[in-house]
Amino acid sequence: MQPTILVTGGTGYIGSHTTVALQQAGYRVVILDNLSNSTPAVLDAIAQITGVKPEFTQGDVRDRATLDMLFDAYKIAAVLHFAGLKAVGESTEKPLAYYDNNVHGSVQLLSAMQRAGLKSFVFSSSATVYGDPQKLPLTEDHPRSATNPYGHTKLVVEDILENLYRSEAGWRIARLRYFNPVGAHTSGLIGEAPQGVPNNLMPYVAQVATGRRPKVQVFGSDYNTADGTGVRDYIHVMDLALGHVKALQSCLQSEQDLLTVNLGTGVGYSVLDMIRAFEQASGKTIPYDLVARRPGDIAACWADTQLASQKLDWRAQKGIQEMCDDAWRWETRS
Ligand code: NAD
Ligand code: WQD
User: Fold this and answer.
1) CA-218 nearest atom, ligand 2
2) pLDDT per residue over 57-77, tens digit each?
3) How many domains in the chain?
4) SS (HEC) of 119-134
5) Which residues have CB under 8 Å from 160's CB, separation 6+?
6) Ligand 2 site, residue 200, Cβ cutoff 6 A
7) Residue 294 burial (CB count, 10 A)
8) In b/e form, how buried is each residue of 226-262, taking b as 16+ CB within 10 angstroms?
9) Pocket of ligand 1 (CB under 6 A)
10) For this structure, is 150 an active site residue?
11) 320-331 vs 201-209: helix axis angle to the nearest 10?
12) Which terminal residue of the chain has fewer beta carbons within 10 Å of its beta carbon, N or C?
């Protein structure tokens, strides 16, 4: 019998790629998603890639009755929790929606797990919890801080998980801190599909390459970095997905554990590096303007990856050219 994994937010960007990796690793996946930022068409695309359509329930992680129903209906071995809201700017305009979805949603999910006697949990945290880096690369013991409500929800849920772990024996929890996930599955069948104007660099660059938007605005060219533009640790979404499979395996194998691990490549690239790599991938010239810094942005951020390598035997494999090639294949899908 394959272990059954509940993936909340499984039709979203990272959840869908992780579902592919889980199914390919032999797990059975049940997805819970309210489709607030995704569509059910993703399920058919996953079936096309893996040959298996994941089980799907449309519902909300804040809805306790749905959660209880799922835990009663399936013999679930672990939960991977992706569902939540993730736009930093929006979180300052609608903080209550962010605390409700991200914090209250996580509390409901963990309470339902507790009732069901299920204690294996993998959480989507973020490098945003490091705030403005005091030193690079970022190690997991770097002090945490948040400058916006979204980041604060991640800090709070990380703390809730630590409290829960210490309150009761047997919890197997992984808090995974993602750096900047980009790219798409190599098939071009699933990828990132932001609604409206993309907030993040790479989907924006992709839309400029297709001609949907005229120019990239490069936010800040006076940072203390090699070319003056912001530097980030971009990680291919399929590498990130495989990191989840390793974290899940680690949880399922341990008696109890609270693991906090960076998922990044350990290498930083600038905005201009990424634009050049995307020009290479697309064969298009990508026009850009150098404009003022975006408020709240940091100069540079990249991961120390040693702990992930030691604890999970995981390392990112794909470089920025593959990230851009795959993003372009997805962007130009018919
Ligand atoms: P996404 O928006 O593509 O996926 C999230 C999914 O959750 C969507 O399908 C959405 O419909 C669903 N959802 C939202 N609220 C829900 C709710 N209350 N109940 C049920 N389903 C709900 O986002 P993503 O990029 O795949 O991010 C997944 C997780 O990873 C999020 O928790 C996000 O904060 C975290 N994360 C993302 C990034 C990033 O840059 N993409 C970086 C670090 C951490
Ligand atoms: C990357 C670089 C920008 C857009 C965000 C969240 C973080 C995490 C990942 C969830 C920066 C520059 C961007 C544009 C630009 N998400 N840029 N023009 O800000 O590193 O991280 O997503 O947890 O919490 O804050 O990612 O892709 O927005 O920006 O010049 O149109 O690109 O200034 O240097 P960021 P990003």
Assistant:
1) 30
2) 999 999 999 999 999 999 999
3) 1
4) CEEEEEEEHHHHCCCC
5) 103, 106, 107, 110
6) yes
7) 14
8) eebbbbbbbbbbbbbbbbbbbbbbbbeeeeeeebbbb
9) 8-9, 11-15, 33-38, 60-62, 82-86, 101, 105, 124, 126, 178, 181
10) yes
11) 60
12) C
Provide the CATH number for the domain around residue 166.
3.40.50.720
Which two tokens mark 162? 């630590």
Which residues does 217 contact at the CB level (< 8 Å), separation at least 6? 288, 289, 291
Residue 289 is inside which H or E element, if any? strand 288-291
Ligand 2 pocket check for 271: Cβ under 6 Å: yes
Out of 13, 27, 130, 150, the active site residue is: 150
Query: Which phi-psi region, left, alpha or beta, contains residue 51 (left: φ > 0; alpha: ψ -120 to 50)?
Result: left
Answer yes or no: is the C-beta of 232 below 6 A from any ligand 2 atom. Answer: yes
How far is residue 5's CA from residue 23's CA, in Å, rounded to a whole number?
10
Has residue 13 been placed in a domain?
yes
Q: Residue 20 falls within a domain, yes or no?
A: yes
How far does residue 176's CA lie from ligand 1's centre (Å)? 14
Query: Domain range for residue 21?
Result: 4-182+234-264
State how far the Cα of 35 lies from the Cα of 83, in Å rounded to an integer: 10
Ligand 1 site-directed mutation target among 66, 80, 124, 128, most atoms within 8 Å of CB:
124
The owner of tokens 């150098």 is: 290
Taken in order 180, 239, 211, 10, is the CA torsion positive or negative? negative
Residue type, 179: F
Query: Which residue's alpha carbon is at the smallest distance from atom 28 of ligand 1?
Result: 82
Among 230, 222, 325, 233, residue whose Cα is nearest residue 282: 325
**What are 65's two structure tokens?**
């009755």
Is 28 within a domain?
A: yes
Residue 269 lies in a domain: no
Number of the ligand closest to the Cα of 90? 2
Nearest-atom number in ligand 2 for the CA of 223 is: 34
Measured CA to CA, the distance from residue 206 to residue 194 in angstroms comes to 11
- Per residue in 145-184, pLDDT (tens digit) is 999 999 999 999 999 999 999 999 999 999 999 999 999 9
